[in-house]
Amino acid sequence: MMTTYLPQYALATVPRYTSYPPATQFHSGVGESVYRDWLGAIGLQDTLSLYVHIPFCQTLCWYCGCHTSVPNSNERVLNYVETLKLEIARVGACVSSSAKVVQVHFGGGTPNFLPPKILAAIIETLMEQFNFDPGAEISVEADPRSLSKEHISTLAGYARVRVSLGVQDVSPDVQKLINRIQPFEEVQGVVEQLRAAGVEGINMDLMYGLPGQSVAHVRKSASMCAALEPDRFAVFGYAHVPWFKKHQRAIDESRLAGGQERLDQAEAARATLIGFGYAPIGIDHFAKPGDSLFKAHSEGRLRRNFQGYTVDPASALIGFGASSIGSFQAGYIQNEPHLGKYRDALKSGGLPVARGVVVSQSERRARAVIERLMCNYEVDLQQVADEENCEISVFLPAISNLEPLCSDGIVEVELPVVRATPKGRPYIRNIAACFDEHYGESEQRYSRVV
Ligand code: SF4
């Protein structure tokens, strides 16, 4: 299937809807006392997912959109780890029930920037403070350039481990333009070592829209990586926001692809991975048939959270570390991103909350609709209305927002079902935005759809 380039949708800036309301709606009026209430309300029947943010990298890739830095001393890193452990203990003390932890995710930055023993000590601290399900999965984002044999053997010591390797593009000419030199042999070697150590899950991240990248580059990267047979891929479009991420100013804008070319590159990645037997999952993930993400997708259990698409069934996500975000039925909470302020809040006996948002009733309904659209490309509004105890008529304003998109053939409304057409699938974020009561308030702060 060839995708149709529709500039009015492709060039629109729309949230990625990894949460609803999106993080642009968070504010400082939601703070520590609200967070303590939410933690205290976690019940025995709840399941937990834990996210740990490691905001350090060895070098800065110029395309990076993450909250990270290159630390100027080892002491800075060790201080951060001590503060992180303090936070884990303090938050753990606020959760009175022994709700089971089913998923732990280390993100960054580069979690394997930390020496293996320190990474293991953080995992042990989590295990001391929380009640881990024996089947809990520990997933770690890793930079293949610094993933040592010791890291691999340490991680392989846990029951269920998944490692996500950042690859982006395999060609040296593109790598030079993004300040990330990473020979393909290094990635290949790491995959072999992970398999030999018995690591259960291997993911790879690729990108399109990078400076100097062409359809041929994307195809080559997808083919060479798919030949290594990871279980899953995520393929993200580069978001150029130099006013927000200052290091992106090092990127030569004249080498960036335009809208149609970006769509062609996304399509090339998609077609290549499908050709290698991967199934597309949502807007940017691919999985081997048999992988748990594929099964969750086939069975309608796919979820979307800050890490993208997930099988994580947890009812609450607790974030640890600077800038991390927690997600609860009642709302979202974000930690202080500034490392000094993060440390000071914990050293003075508090929790390092910077901002958050309480989800209103109408936002909760929209959250349910948007998550289903983003995961399944369709939603049964009657089902959501029944679950949320409301009339389907509450969606009438959103349905009228969909009218121009129906005329353009990207969505079909056959009430109670709203469904993206095959032509509309790349524009599912635009469709979801019709249910977003905040959309348009601050659209320039989001990334482009394609
Ligand atoms: S390794 Fe990852 S987190 Fe670190 S700078 Fe590069 S892209 Fe950003």
Tell me what the structure shows:
There is one protein chain. The protein has 450 residues and is of the alpha/beta class. It folds into 2 domains: 1-17 and 360-450, Orthogonal Bundle (Arc Repressor Mutant, subunit A), CATH 1.10.10; 22-320, tm_1862 like domain (pyruvate-formate lyase- activating enzyme, Alpha-Beta Horseshoe). 36% of the residues lie in helices and 21% in strands. It contains 16 helices and 17 strands. It has helices at 7-10, 32-40, 74-94, 116-129, 149-156, 172-177, 184-197, 215-226, 259-275, 292-298, 339-347, 361-376, 381-387, 396-401, 403-407, 428-433, and strands spanning 47-54, 100-108, 131-142, 160-168, 201-208, 232-237, 279-281, 285-287, 303-305, 308-310, 316-320, 325-328, 331-335, 353-358, 378-380, 411-414, 417-420. The strands form 4 sheets. Strands 7-8-6-5-4-3-2-1-11 form a 9-stranded mixed β-sheet, with helices on both faces. Strands 12-13-14 form a 3-stranded antiparallel β-sheet, with helices on one face. β3, α5 (149-156) and β4 (160-168) form a beta-alpha-beta unit. α5 packs parallel to α7 (184-197). The longest helix is centred in the N-terminal third of the chain and has 21 residues, at 74-94. The chain is globular. It starts with 6 loop residues before the first helix and ends in a 17-residue tail after the last helix. Iron/sulfur cluster binds next to loops. Iron/sulfur cluster binds at residues 57, 60-61, 64, 66, 68, 108-110, 143, 166.
